TrEMBL record:
Keyword check for Zinc-finger: no
Record membrane topology: Multi-pass membrane protein
A molecular function GO annotation: L-isoleucine transmembrane transporter activity
Any matching Pfam family: Branch_AA_trans
Gene symbol of the encoding locus: brnQ
The name this protein goes by in its record: Branched-chain amino acid transport system carrier protein
Keywords tagged on the record: Amino-acid transport, Cell membrane, Membrane, Transmembrane, Transmembrane helix, Transport
UniProt function note: Component of the transport system for branched-chain amino acids.
InterPro entries, alphabetized: Brnchd-chn_aa_trnsp_Livcs
GO terms for cellular component: plasma membrane
Stated family: Belongs to the branched chain amino acid transporter family.
GO BP annotation list: isoleucine transport; L-leucine transport
Length: 431
């Protein structure tokens, strides 16, 4: 179930594009992508296991307004603003479009209604999530992905291609930042609580046992994700004879059709639809539960339906528009999520977690906003970023936030009020 929840639209479309750009630099680019596409989601699940709760509990050391604002930003990003609509758009563009004999606009509109209708029906019964996703959809998805991966490895459609100019200087760090686009690190803390709930629903209640099973689920999902990403990245790296970089949006359909002939269209449609559907269900469930806690007067089921309708409408903007709009938001949020995850590991041993969290995340936010300005494409905002970011250590490697985060950690530790120790014995045991 955990693997299927993570494996969605971004996990399918971005690894081949990484390979297409990296070409002969396939390995460093792939490892960079794995660092953020696999390592960070696993770190988020581990944080959930250590803390013993989801995003609400992980952000509890922050001021209430900051924790609420951060939670809303995360859930809107992985919810009806970007990630959920993207599942429907990708499922249509890369899976079902060849089978719908309508204009692209009309086809996408019809597909959005059907796709989000099915996702909503499953999400309305969150207690059945493990049965529907884990027992039925995931095995079929894994079998189809294994088929594509095997044929890609034993029958590549060309040699490793040339390295694109933007990848030549630092393929690892470029792949590292491309991993942001999967949104999985943002979703890890959200899905983490679904995993914990599913484990408890099976009668496992002891804290140590819940933690252990959560870690196992995260580890298995991480291994499976890596097993998907590497062949897909290799697919892109060996695709230059079939697809130019300008047409990389058609990379996967063209490549799979070259491998399997006409049957490739059906195989790809099943893979993409299943991957996107399972993720859409998980995101609708998670977001519905979060906003139900935030707005208890609004029933969970009503929230799921409203978000599904909003997602269906936004999906009709098209894939390219959704990706371009989401990039500035993602490069702003990802450093915050990474720092928050790392602080969660330290939290059981901090005497004044609120002060440390506030300083570290506050300084990180200032720099991550500059990254968002740079990615926005707005001249005024980009000019601000260009003036300040060169002054930051490691900014050329897209790690300008690291030094401010460490500075905030040090300031928080030095100014901690030790007489008001908040060490939590249960957190220490979990860690």
């Amino acid at each position: 179930m955990t693997f299927a929840l993570f494996l969605g639209a971004g996990n399918i479309i971005f690894p081949p594009q990484v390979g297409q750009g990296a070409g002969a630099e396939f390995w460093p680019a792939a490892l960079g992508f794995l660092a953020t596409g696999v390592g960070m989601p696993l770190a988020g699940i581990v944080a959930v296991a250590v803390i013993g709760g989801g995003l609400d509990k992980i952000t509890s050391p922050l001021p209430k307004w900051a924790a609420a604002a951060f939670g809303v930003a995360i859930y809107l990003s992985i919810g009806p603003m970007f990630a959920i609509p993207r599942t429907g758009t990708v499922a249509f563009e890369m899976g079902m479009r060849p089978f719908i004999n309508m204009t692209p606009q009309s086809g996408l509109a019809l597909h959005s209604v059907l796709f989000f209708g099915v996702a909503t029906l499953i999400a309305l019964s969150p207690g059945k999530l493990m049965d529907v996703v884990g027992k039925w959809l995931t095995p079929l998805l894994i079998a189809l992905l294994a088929l594509i991966a095997t044929f890609t490895i034993i029958n590549p459609q060309g040699p490793l291609g040339p390295v694109s100019p933007e990848w030549a200087e630092s393929p690892f760090m470029t792949g590292f930042q491309q991993g942001y686009l999967t949104m999985d690190a943002l979703a890890s803390m959200v899905f983490g609580i679904l995993i914990v709930s599913a484990i408890k629903a099976r009668g496992v209640t002891a804290t140590a046992d819940v933690t252990r099973y959560t870690l196992w689920a995260g580890a298995i999902a991480a291994i499976c994700l890596a097993a998907v990403y590497l062949p897909l990245t290799y697919m892109g790296a060996t695709s230059h004879a079939l697809v130019t970089e300008a047409g990389k949006g058609e990379l996967i359909p063209v490549y799979v059709e070259a491998l399997f002939g006409d049957a490739g269209k059906l195989i790809l449609a099943l893979v993409i639809t299943l991957a996107c559907l399972t993720t859409a269900v998980g995101l609708l469930t998670s977001c519905g539960e979060f906003f139900n806690r935030l707005l208890p007067a609004v029933p969970y089921r009503a929230l799921v339906v409203v978000m599904a309708i909003a997602s269906a409408l936004i999906a009709n903007l098209g894939l390219a528009a959704l990706i371009s709009i989401s990039i500035p938001v993602l490069v702003t949020l990802y450093p915050l999520v990474l720092v928050l995850t790392l602080l969660s590991y330290l939290r059981p041993h901090l005497h004044d977690a609120p002060r440390v969290f506030t300083w570290s995340l506050g300084l990180t936010l200032l720099v991550s906003l500059l990254d968002g300005f740079e990615a926005s494409g707005i001249d005024t905002l980009m000019a601000i970023s260009h003036r300040i970011e060169p002054l930051l250590p490691l900014a050329s490697m897209n790690l300008g936030w690291l030094a401010p985060a460490l500075m905030g950690l040090i300031i928080g530790l030095l100014t901690s009020r030790r007489e008001q120790s908040n060490l939590d014995p249960e957190l220490i045991r979990n860690s």
